[in-house]
Specification:
Layout (H helix, E strand, L loop, with lengths): L2 E6 L28 H10 L8 E5 L3 H10 L5 E5 L4 H16 L4 E6 L7 H15 L4 E6 L10 E8 L2 E8 L4 H9 L3 E10 H11 L1 H12 L9 E2 L12 H6 L5 E6 L9 H7 L8 E3 L1 E5 L5 E3 L5 E5 L4 E6 L2 E6 L6 H10 L14 H22 L12 E2 L10 E2 H16 L6 H15 L10 E2 L5 E3 L4 H17 L6 H11 L21 H15 L4 H18 L25 E2 L1 H18 L5 H12 L2 E2 L4 E2 L2 E3 L4 E3 L2 E2 L1 H12 L5 H10 L11 E2 L10 E2 L2 H13 L8
Parallel strand pairs: 1-2, 1-4, 2-3, 3-9, 5-10, 11-13, 12-14, 13-15
Antiparallel strand pairs: 4-8, 5-8, 6-7, 6-8, 7-10, 15-16, 17-28, 18-19, 19-20, 21-24, 22-23, 24-25, 26-27
Helix pairs in contact: 3-6, 3-7, 6-7, 11-22, 12-13, 12-14, 12-22, 13-14, 14-15, 14-16, 16-17, 16-18, 18-19, 18-20, 20-21, 20-22
């Protein structure tokens, strides 16, 4: 009888609001240590002697989270995705049906993903004892010996012992405090919700007591779909299973129930007082995670993201939790009431638990993205993303907010300067001026070449590493200068800096129009796109006529050379005559660039009042939509010229461009807004994921700072949505 660990990932953890939200519930949060409870659970059960493949049962909405967190700990599992939550009986039945189909003698070790068990060795020893009982034809639950009369848990009344396990006299619902004290005196155990059972036995008991559940589970497993090695979506039969817990469906009815009393420390971390009790604490009893100062404070819990300072003075027994612009302050003894508060917020239409729920309106997306930008992203990337010792901005942040030490590209410095200057222009009250000049000053000091152009790369210490003066990088320098000049004129003469850089760029002029780029693709659309964006920024700010002339030149080049006249799509690479490059280079179509050019062409029409670019913008938008994967709802990386898929992965930035183009052209932007929001749903609020895999999950990697430019422009586009409607 092989052992199959089964991890149940249901539950929303509403009592751990605001950190735990429906889209990112408590099991996926690092509540005590550096890893999430789900990750700790996987590692705990994967270490069971004789354990076969780990099975995870979870809702389809959490697929990306599960795959990313498994990848982070270098572990695989068979993931069964529920198309709809049907409570624990159906979930356990599906797992047992999956095991039974592969190993009729398999024993399921069913555990919850959100339990804190610090002693893994004791847990594993207990499970092996429970397996002995299971092999005798019993469904064994782990009953925890209470260390306090808790009203937060259900109880089990044990009967007579039989080997390592005991019979079960009764299961008892969560009691009040007085009843809990009586249960402890009578030798009752906490009902941990962990089970060890032969998979076939549980299915047989369901056949007897709830046959609709076992039938639905078997059909759902048999009709599950997903490529080999990927998560499996249970078949539609799963939604026909009655919605009932395993305790009601089987455990309170079966004669095969048994309990193994265990004495290891256990908690389901169901509320903030439990998190405090399980966390490391200072000599005053305070459990602090994040930036907090405690003066004459005792027995308090504080959780705050990077960039948020919490100060406690003269208080006791408080929980202070800050997450995504929401703040909870409550007495630790009142933590069970958090769910009541959440219910009231929902009833009042003020709950922001989802991160985020599907947007119903553009206005709803505006509110959510604006709050995320102002309260999370801008503070995080200034406090942790900036190097406050050596200057400049870091290239990336780890999921926990730790900066990545790496050589620094010029585009990161200018993009971050642009982001904070843009924040100033839209009225952010944070230190935007300090942050913007932090990046700009570092850039001007460390990247300038003797010829007036700017190098590509410096070391962490600021020394030159790559003298290449890419047109792409010069374009972002011009964009940052224009934006910071508009936000904070007079501090440095950035208008003169911009003119000098434009003059220096003339050495890159191409006889056939436009400019040459450095590197393997000297004739390309991408660098011109950002040069157009920069020229328009200067023109909109009232710069010299040459900026508008430059923008007009690039617009004409795009309309006559970059955009295919017949297909209405934009190519990426060209030969010296601005004809499509030979081979695969000339056949590449990037959906994100279709959207981004569409946005720029529409902006040009707005700025100049000249409508001739709008038809091309709408054709580009239509071409970009052909690169949206309907299954995942994201814009993918690349197509070929015949619109076949070339690269099905989906980076973050095409989602921002899809959103911008949809907004300015008056198209339906909700799908794009939801796509982008998925990338921003991260443990470190204010950070992001960069690559959505063809399987639907996200690649585990640091968050690149360079993406902030894309996100900030998309957020700004949301603020000004509706200016150009369809005609």
């Amino acid at each position: 009888m092989a052992i199959y660990p089964v991890i149940m990932c249901g539950g929303s953890g509403a009592r751990l609001w605001p950190a735990s939200r429906p889209a990112h519930p408590k099991q996926f949060l690092p509540l005590v240590g550096a890893r999430s409870m789900f990750q700790e659970t996987v590692l705990r059960v994967a270490g069971l002697p004789g354990a076969a493949e780990v099975v995870v049962v979870a809702g389809i909405a959490h697929r990306a989270l599960i795959e990313a967190q498994l990848s982070e700990i270098g572990t695989t599992a068979a993931v069964l995705l529920e198309p709809e939550a049907r409570d624990s009986a159906a979930a356990m039945a599906a797992a047992c049906a999956w095991i039974d189909a592969r190993d009729p003698d398999g024993v399921a070790v069913v555990v919850s993903a959100d339990h804190h068990i610090p002693d893994n060795a004791a847990f594993r020893a207990a499970v092996l004892s429970a397996v002995e009982g299971a092999r005798q034809g019993l469904i064994v639950t782990l009953g925890v010996r209470p260390d306090a009369p808790s009203a937060a848990y259900g109880y089990i009344s044990p009967g007579a012992p039989s080997g390592p396990v005991w019979s079960v006299e009764a299961f008892v619902e969560k009691p009040d405090a007085e009843a809990a004290r009586g249960y402890i005196t009578s030798g009752y155990l906490w009902n941990s919700g962990n089970f060890v059972t032969p998979a076939g036995l549980l299915l047989a008991e369901l056949d007897a007591f709830e046959p609709a559940i076992s039938a639905a589970a078997r059909k759902a497993v048999a009709s599950a779909y997903g490529a080999a090695g990927e998560s499996q979506l249970l078949g539609e039969a799963f939604v026909t299973a009655p919605k009932i817990s395993i305790d009601y469906a089987v455990m309170e009815k079966t004669k095969a129930a048994a309990v193994l009393p265990v004495g290891f420390a256990w908690s389901d971390l169901g509320a903030w007082d439990a998190v405090w009790a399980a966390s490391p604490r200072d000599e005053a009893g305070n459990a602090i995670r994040g930036e907090a100062l405690a003066l004459s404070a005792q027995d308090c819990l504080v959780r705050a993201p990077g960039g948020t300072q919490v100060t406690l003075i003269g208080v006791k027994d408080l929980a202070v939790v800050v997450d995504q612009g929401q703040v909870l302050v409550c007495n630790l003894s009142a933590c069970q009431q958090v769910k009541t508060a959440v219910d009231q917020l929902k009833a009042q239409g003020r709950e922001t638990l989802a991160a985020p729920a599907p947007f119903d309106t553009v206005e709803g997306a505006q509110v959510w993205f604006d709050r995320w930008l102002r309260t999370s992203a801008l503070p995080l990337w200034w406090t942790l993303g900036a190097d406050h010792v050596r200057g400049g901005f870091h290239e990336a942040l780890m999921p926990d907010g730790t900066p990545v030490e790496a050589p620094r590209r010029s585009r990161v410095q200018t993009r971050q300067a642009f982001v904070y200057a843009s924040a100033g222009l839209v009225g952010w009250q944070g230190p935007w001026r300090q942050a913007a000049w932090h990046g700009m000053t570092y850039f001007l000091d460390r990247y300038r070449r003797p010829d007036g152009l700017f190098r590509a790369l410096v070391s962490e210490a600021g020394g030159p590493l790559d003298e290449t003066a890419a047109l792409y990088d010069q374009a972002f320098a011009l964009l940052a200068m224009a934006t910071l000049n508009a936000a904070d004129p007079g501090h440095v003469d950035l208008a003169s800096e911009g003119r000098r850089l434009l003059e220096a760029l003339q050495v890159l002029r191409h006889p056939a129009g436009g400019f040459r780029e450095e590197g393997a693709h000297p004739f390309q659309a991408n660098a011109h796109m950002h040069l157009l964006e920069a020229a328009m920024a200067w023109a909109e700010a009232g710069g010299e006529p040459e900026w508008q002339a430059l923008a007009a030149e690039i617009i004409e080049l795009a309309l006559t050379r970059f955009i295919n006249a017949d297909g209405g799509y934009l190519r990426e690479f060209f030969d010296a005559a601005w004809a499509p490059a030979p081979g695969e280079d000339g056949r590449l179509i990037e959906p994100g660039h279709q959207f981004e050019w569409a946005w720029l062409l529409a902006r040009w029409s707005q700025m100049t009042g000249e409508p001739h670019a709008l038809p091309a913008a709408r054709r580009l938008y239509a071409a970009g939509l052909r690169g949206v994967d309907p299954a995942r709802g994201v814009a993918i990386n690349a197509l070929s010229h015949d619109f076949t898929v070339r690269d099905p992965a989906a980076r973050l930035w095409p989602q921002t461009e899809w959103l911008k183009a949809a907004l300015i052209l008056g198209e339906d932007a909700l799908g794009a807004a939801q796509a982008l929001a998925r990338y921003l749903d991260t443990p470190a609020t204010g950070s992001w994921r960069d690559l959505n895999l063809p399987t639907g999950g996200f690649r585990a990697e640091p968050a690149p700072a360079s993406s902030f430019y894309h996100i900030a422009v998309a957020c700004r586009a949301l603020r000004t949505a509706g200016r150009l409607q369809r005609t």
